[in-house]
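I would like you to sit down with the record closing this message with an eye to the fold:
=====
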Amino acid sequence: MRIADVRLLLPADCSYFTDSAASEDIAQRGWVTRLQVANPMSTYPQYAMSRRSWMGPGQEHYAIEIETDTGEVGVCANYYGGAMACEIIRAHFRRFLLGQDPFDSAKIWDQMYRASLPYGHGGLIGMAIAGVDLALWDLKGKLLGQPVYKLLGGATKDDGIPCYLTTHSDAVGHWRDSGFLGVKIAAPFGAESGRAGVLKMEKLIRELRETIGPDKEIMIDCYMSWGHEFALAVAERVKNCGVKWFEDPLPSGWAADANRDLRKALVPIGLANGNMEFDHHAFAGLLEAGASSVIQPEIHWCGGLTAVLRIAAYAEHHHVPLVPHGPNIYPMHLVMANAGSPYAEFVTGGDGTTLVNIFDLLLDQPLPVEGRYHLPDTPGFGVRLNHDRLRKYPS
């Protein structure tokens, strides 16, 4: 049995190389892209109010189908990468797939990784590798008649996966009596807002604690917009509010020492990072430096499941919990099989008060029930591509 075909797809409403991320596939995320969220571009007022105002090519969805000569098909939909990732796969990685045994996924992953060394392992490369890798894991599960988490060793959790909820601050009260472990909100204010922003963040976090009650966790996503000074100023003012972590307060990339120093200074608040890193070696650096209270690889961006398994081994060695970033079913299989991943993230869409799968290129994704995510025993990842939302990328 050999790989016979590789098919690439884009959202039907997305141009091949769009100059913005304003297509409907991004807009489906509701509050995530429509409301004010502090971000790396917040220092420029014209881009501060909306992520969609500055996002560019590569921040759209794409999908891949890998078919064997006996007709079995493995699929993946990636919510970043777009036409650029498709072109990398078509023009470069395809040669490492055609004619190969789909069970040799480790070799295929290594060949893609090594072959891209001359032009880097940044975001788009990791997103392209991830799409191929996840489709191969899906294919292997289908060929063996097993869900992916069972290929990884089986369930480590008896009653589904406990989840925390990422939502908008105005929607937090809706989830007070839910079964979720807690809430994560995107910080609307960053370093560009100065002392006024620090005071606004203090007010917001105190209101969150009052709204959600004493028994739920609170986490703050800073999206690389805070820096040392701002993060420490906020931490000092909310140290009695029971904040579990600040997420990505510093820009990613070559920042292990800076994150280590900040982590030490933030205690008792933890430091979560990693979702904006794109190479497994970067995660090794963060963990070896003691720079992470929680490590958060994004399975769609850092090279897929094969890469995250390496990161999970690093995290286990350093006794750091691995809690993947991401809003869909793919990381859930890793969490279910990894004892070092105690819970997972689920992201609300719309106005933040409803449980919906914000990634609509996939069909058959479960929704959490009373805060717990239950994986089906369907072979592979247990999902299908929504072909009504897709069109073929030119081969």
Notes: The chain has a mean pLDDT of 93. Residues 182 and 217 are 4 Å apart (CA to CA). The chain has two domains: 3-145+385-392, 150-382.
